[in-house]
Automatic annotation (TrEMBL):
Enzyme Commission (EC) number: 4.1.1.97
Protein name as catalogued: 2-oxo-4-hydroxy-4-carboxy-5-ureidoimidazoline decarboxylase
Naturally occurring in which organism (per UniProt): Saccharothrix mutabilis subsp. mutabilis
Entries under NCBIfam families matching the protein: PRK13798.1, UraD_2
Catalytic activity: 5-hydroxy-2-oxo-4-ureido-2,5-dihydro-1H-imidazole-5-carboxylate + H(+) = (S)-allantoin + CO2
Gene that specifies this protein: uraD
Classification via InterPro entries: OHCU_decarboxylase (IPR018020), OHCU_decarboxylase-2 (IPR017595), OHCU_decarboxylase_sf (IPR036778)
The UniProt record lists the keyword Lyase: yes
């Protein structure tokens, strides 16, 4: 896949796994596929964002495939490479602090802390995590949905432009 034309014409069976790597929500994947052909990359991204208004159950399912901030993905593949690149701002020296903060977050909300990490330093992520600890669970689920939308958009751009380095 190298461009919008290829995306629009590719068989659904070829795109479905790539879209699932962007956002592991079957309803979202099928909505993005059903919207083809897209007139522009912007139209694709807008449709993908519209479809990414997730239910609480979909948010929880989508989180399940993401590694904790500061940890490597448990499985290989394209999303593991994307996660590693997206978290490249996490300094090794913050590992213990991130581990403790992640544990506190998981205790409070029952799932991993998720943020669109591209371009964020480890310190910035720690600050964000601390601020989000004040959220009630419903608000936090909506915040996570917003982060999943950002991640999906970044990864969808990578599907369209696999040979570009886009700030990961």
């Amino acid at each position: 896949m190298t461009d919008l034309q290829g995306f629009n014409s590719a068989p659904a069976e070829q795109l479905r796994p790539l879209l699932t790597e962007c956002l592991a929500v079957p309803r979202w994947v099928e909505a993005v596929l059903a919207g083809r052909p897209y007139a522009s990359e912007e139209a694709l991204l807008a449709a993908a964002d519209d479809a990414a208004s997730l239910t609480d159950d979909e948010v929880r399912a989508a989180i399940a495939g993401h590694p904790r901030i500061g940890e490597k993905a448990k499985h290989g593949g394209v999303s593991a490479r994307w996660s590693a690149a997206e978290q490249s701002g996490v300094a090794e020296s913050l590992a213990d602090r991130l581990k403790a903060a992640n544990a506190a977050y998981e205790e409070r909300f029952g799932h991993i802390y998720l943020v669109c990490a591209t371009g964020l330093s480890g310190e910035r992520m720690l600050d964000d995590l601390a601020a989000r600890m004040a959220n009630d669970p419903r608000t936090e689920t909506r915040v996570v949905n917003g982060e999943l939308r950002k991640i999906a958009a970044l990864r969808l751009r990578k599907v369209l432009h696999p040979h570009e380095t886009q700030g990961s």
